[in-house]
Amino acid sequence: MSSRRLMLWFYHLSWKKLLGWSGLALAVAIVPLALTAANSPTRTRSEAALITKPQPISTEFVAPKGAPEIYLVDHFFGKTGDAVLIHGANLGGFSERTSLSLSGQTIPQDNLVSWTSDYIEFKLPAEARSGRISVNILGQTATWPGTFWVTDANTAAELKLEKVNEKQARLLAKNINAANGLLVWLLIFQGEDKSIEIVPDLKPQIKTLPLGRVYELNLNITSTGEWITLATITKKDGQAVGIARAEVIGANLPIKVHPLYVSF
């Protein structure tokens, strides 16, 4: 069976059908995944994303009602093999007339995990380079405004949200020199109230996405090997806040966030 036919067959399986497999088949399928998860820090499933999605494996093509849009690339960084989730609209579905690219290079079919009308999940290829993520749906293109960073063991620039208590966290940076500015998106993606308090007042630009509210910060910082505090964020009951984008203006500097400190 060709890789394309195999992918289409797998996508047409529902989870109810998967759960109907024999215990032996499930054991064979689950054990290698469990071993991989135990021995590797790689994000093997999109559950690591800020905004997780169920896993409806489908290739049903939903005719777009307008131009494609990308709201968020989740996470905005990753290493080879990591799962990346793209949230958007009018993404159609997997077909011969749709494609996904990173830094101008098409994501191979074997790296595509799921593709629906409102999200795409893929595994980061070994040859991937940092850059913009774009989709082409029936000849119409959409590009996420941020940069996706391909990271590895040598990536030194880092951000994190370190919890002070259940409602407060400090935004910290390490090994980031940004004389021209460090752009950071803080996304409020849970809770009825989408407002947060940031101290000091960094005069953020506020954007509203279908996924939540973005506080766009622009900071001028110089950080060395020690963590420095950029701001303290206070949220309300029921809210969840995460780092959704980060880049040094005018510089090609990959930035990472430890998964345990990407949201609170």
Automatic annotation (TrEMBL):
Gene3D superfamilies: Immunoglobulins. Residues 77-141 form the IPT/TIG domain. InterPro entries: Ig-like_fold, Ig_E-set, IPT_dom. It comes from the Bacteria. This is IPT/TIG domain-containing protein. It holds the Pfam family TIG.
